[in-house]
């Protein structure tokens, strides 16, 4: 066959519903179930067959379906309502950002993956969901915001389970004409292209535009005819290749991403790297400045001064490091382009403490050094990250490492069922969907009766069970099951039974099989004659993660045992659709990672939006979200660390069974003290306590206030006059670094071995400043008591000595020290230079 080319015939929509095609190209529908239902109702079979894709649905439905909808007054009325709301949303001028963040500079956001909807499979898990949700709330809040990513033609894999429960991976080639994306075009109407050098070849990328509400996402795609066949595969699979492929993809995302922004005319002044994958964007931004005539140091200062880095995982595999050999092959020309040396550039990405196999370019280290602000994704993860990276900040206590935190959130509307939204609307203020982050409005949930909540939850559970049965049936059909086995799917799960959900990536630290540790006990719980419990599992393992796949298989096998059949189910192909079904349909959401490896987790938040309490290890967000007295859910295990994993697993499993049997089950079945409303109390509290605090809206507002606005201000400080202030800072830092070896500090004190509370101690220090001016040095006394670090500035006296009087206010053991560091008012924080000398 000789195919000349492809042509897509666009649907001709009847005028009465004519704007459905416009709406299909805006992901607005992904968080408005009523918008989706318009496409579904054109033809439900097509809608299901093509994975809930509005663009595809419009291409597939026949004119009879269109005409029927266009002449159905009810459909046209719903259409009118949805379009009116869409227009109001798109046209809104009075947004949160216009009121609260007028000084915000345009933000560029880089992420390797985005989970916006199941029909656009360019995500693997939590990181992608977080990025997708961040974009949605940035749109809701009206931020000037442009996300950048890659368009993976084979997406992430579709998971199937074979007859033996072993995961298989299928990559479906995306048909781009059926996606809600359009190529960006030049004024001459050509497709926009950018190019960059990768491994000695020029690689070209097409830039697609994806509308997410009010914002425009840019997606790069190298599958264009002018590229070498190997380079066309760069945007084939997410996390699919080896180290080399990864590095090439990071170059494309970082370097290509900056070029795409520029070429598309998207303004960008504040830069947010969502994980270290995007770290190489700094190379291109420095190169741009060097090309304008700035030196490397000044360019680095400018670039870092407007950049935020978010780290997402303490798991080593999540922190890529590339050998210098590999770097030389791909980035060999960059030091010269940046007017610096290979040694200097690579030193910015080096962490000798973490190297097992020779010198490496660590993306996390590089990203930390290339940004003046950094954060983890929950309070605990902030702490874990400071500890993990403290060796990069010698002279500081872990508590002082400049990595803060913003606790993750989830995009409420994308995951809350329409039924729950309808119910909430009966008690919430009219504009509640714009005020999701305000805790006060959620107090209205108290007005909902137990019966109302139970009613919605019963319906959602019934829908989920129908979905599970259908899903399992499809799997069995594909695996060649017989009639009896197929018929059996109609009896899977019971709507009257307490249902617990567990779904996430099957990374081993998430311990998916913890529940199975004591099968006899589990069997008693599941098969209790009056108060049974059933479980639904789902999740993908990374294709290269055989231990993760073995966990899936183990759950599958257990689910086939006579005592668990129909009561423990594992669904294949966990994606956003399965996620929505589960978080909306189960009674309790379970999570049992090995603390403290879950940086945040977000699926539990989504469950709580729908009134499903969490039953979870006190890790990630749940440490913060869990209320005293288990009012909104329950902990698994204790808030502590273990030296031995087996001991930890045993302790957590024991706690899991114990709480389930003694607390959750009796409460659900209403047997505790005859309090009929006690379960409803937990449900209300789950919604009320989680919806605002863990809304993506709250998260994005935190980012704006803690990072985007300060970086906007910093940019205003550094950029004017051709980077005047940045140059001064850079020169000053270089000079100080040079002088620093000559500087010394010695302290004298009369520290008593014991002291009374409130006792004062006089401490003096003798400083040899070398050639550094006195006002550019700061000496301080540092008191550390437990995890609290207190800093007391020392005054410079006439005679050149430094002195301070410190009061030991509270009883306990103090570590007392004196240290010296260089100081200038315009630093982003006191230890920006990384130079600290202790007496
Ligand atoms: C929310 C979500 C995740 C992340 O959930 P965790 O709690 O972080 O495991 C992963 N995958 C999908 C499809 C999701 O919707």
TrEMBL record:
Keywords, in A-Z order: Allosteric enzyme, Glycosyltransferase, Pyridoxal phosphate, Transferase
Domain DUF3417: 13-120
One GO-annotated biological process of the protein: carbohydrate metabolic process
Catalytic activity: [(1->4)-alpha-D-glucosyl](n) + phosphate = [(1->4)-alpha-D-glucosyl](n-1) + alpha-D-glucose 1-phosphate
Keyword NAD: no
Gene Ontology molecular function terms on file: glycogen phosphorylase activity; pyridoxal phosphate binding
Modified residues (N6-(pyridoxal phosphate)lysine): 606
Top-level EC class: transferase
Enzyme Commission number, as recorded: 2.4.1.1
Family as reported in the entry's similarity comment: Belongs to the glycogen phosphorylase family.
Protein name in UniProt: Alpha-glucan phosphorylase
């Amino acid at each position: 066959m000789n195919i000349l080319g492809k042509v897509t015939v666009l649907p001709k929509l009847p005028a009465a519903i004519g704007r459905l095609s416009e709406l299909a190209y805006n992901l607005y529908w992904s968080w408005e179930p009523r918008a989706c239902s318009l496409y579904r109702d054109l033809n439900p079979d097509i809608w299901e067959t093509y994975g809930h894709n509005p663009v595809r649905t419009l291409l597939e439905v026949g004119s009879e379906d269109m005409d029927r909808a266009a002449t159905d007054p009810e459909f046209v009325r719903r259409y009118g309502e949805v379009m009116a709301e869409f227009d109001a949303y798109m046209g809104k001028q009075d947004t949160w950002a216009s009121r609260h963040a007028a000084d915000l500079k345009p933000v560029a956001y880089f992420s390797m993956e985005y989970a916006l909807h199941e029909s656009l499979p360019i995500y693997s898990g939590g990181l992608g969901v977080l990025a997708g949700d961040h974009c949605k709330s940035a749109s809701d809040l009206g931020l000037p915001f442009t996300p950048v990513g890659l368009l993976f033609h084979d997406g992430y894999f579709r998971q199937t389970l074979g007859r033996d429960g072993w995961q298989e991976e299928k990559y479906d080639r995306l048909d781009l004409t059926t996606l809600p994306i359009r190529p960006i075009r030049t004024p001459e109407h050509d497709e926009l292209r950018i190019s960059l050098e990768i491994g000695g070849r020029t690689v070209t990328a097409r830039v697609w535009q994806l509308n997410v509400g009010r914002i425009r996402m840019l997606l790069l795609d190298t599958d264009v005819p002018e590229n070498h066949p190997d380079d066309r595969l760069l945007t084939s699979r997410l996390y699919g290749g080896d180290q080399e492929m990864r590095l090439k993809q990071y170059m494309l995302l970082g370097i290509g991403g900056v070029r795409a922004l520029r070429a598309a005319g998207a303004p960008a002044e504040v830069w947010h790297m969502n994980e270290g994958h995007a770290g190489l964007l700094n190379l291109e931004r420095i190169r741009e400045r060097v090309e304008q005539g700035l030196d490397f140091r000044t360019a680095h200062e400018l670039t870092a001064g407007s950049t935020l880095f978010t780290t997402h995982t303490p798991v080593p595999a999540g922190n890529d490091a590339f050998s210098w050999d590999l770097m030389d092959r791909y980035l060999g020309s960059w030091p010269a382009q940046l007017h610096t040396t290979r040694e200097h550039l690579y030193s910015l990405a080096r962490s000798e403490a973490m190297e097992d196999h020779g010198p490496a370019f660590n993306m996390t280290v590089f990203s930390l050094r290339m940004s003046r602000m950094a954060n983890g994704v929950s309070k605990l993860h902030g702490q874990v990250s400071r500890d993990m990276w403290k060796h990069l900040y010698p002279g500081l206590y872990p508590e002082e490492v400049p990595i803060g935190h913003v606790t993750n959130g989830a995009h409420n509307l994308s995951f809350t069922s329409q039924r729950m939204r309808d119910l909430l609307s009966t008690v919430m203020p009219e504009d509640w969907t714009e005020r999701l982050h305000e805790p006060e409005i959620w107090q209205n949930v108290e007005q909902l009766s137990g019966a109302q909540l139970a009613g919605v939850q019963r319906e959602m559970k019934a829908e989920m069970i129908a979905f599970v049965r259908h899903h399992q049936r499809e799997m069995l059909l594909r695996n060649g099951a017989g009639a009896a086995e197929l018929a059996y799917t109609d009896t899977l799960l019971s709507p009257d039974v307490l249902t617990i959900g567990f779904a996430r990536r099957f990374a081993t630290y998430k311990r998916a099989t913890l529940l199975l540790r004591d099968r006899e006990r589990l069997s008693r719980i599941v098969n209790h004659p009056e108060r049974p419990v059933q479980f639904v599992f789902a999740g993908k393992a990374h294709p290269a993660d055989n231990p993760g796949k073995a966990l899936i298989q183990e759950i599958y096998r257990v689910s086939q045992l006579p005592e668990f059949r129909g009561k423990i189910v594992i669904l294949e192909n966990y994606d956003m659709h399965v996620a929505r079904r589960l978080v909306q349909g189960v009674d309790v959401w379970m999570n049992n990672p090995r603390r403290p490896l879950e940086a945040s987790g977000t699926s539990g938040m989504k469950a709580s939006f729908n009134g499903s309490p969490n039953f979870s290890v006190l890790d990630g967000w749940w440490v913060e979200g869990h209320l005293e007295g288990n009012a909104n859910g329950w902990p698994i295990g204790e808030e502590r660390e273990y030296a031995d994993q087996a001991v930890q697993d045993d302790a957590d499993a024991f706690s899991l069974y114990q709480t389930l049997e003694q607390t959750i089950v009796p409460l659900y079945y209403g047997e505790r003290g005859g309090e009929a409303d006690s379960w409803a109390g937990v449900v209300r509290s789950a919604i009320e306590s989680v919806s605002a605090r863990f809304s993506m809206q709250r998260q994005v507002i935190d980012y704006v206030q803690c990072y985007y606005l300060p970086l906007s201000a910093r940019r205003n400080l550094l950029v004017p006059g051709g980077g005047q202030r940045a140059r001064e800072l850079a020169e000053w830092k270089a000079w100080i670094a040079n002088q620093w070896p000559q500087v010394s500090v010695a302290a004298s004190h009369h520290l008593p071995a014991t002291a009374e509370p409130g006792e004062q101690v006089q401490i003096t220090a003798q400083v040899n400043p070398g050639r550094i001016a006195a006002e550019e040095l700061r000496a301080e006394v540092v008191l550390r008591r437990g995890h609290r670090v207190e800093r007391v500035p020392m005054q410079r006296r006439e005679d050149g000595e430094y002195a301070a009087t410190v009061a030991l206010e509270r009883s306990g053991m103090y570590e007392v020290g004196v240290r010296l560091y260089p100081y200038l008012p315009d630093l982003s924080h006191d230890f920006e230079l990384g130079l600290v000398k202790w007496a």
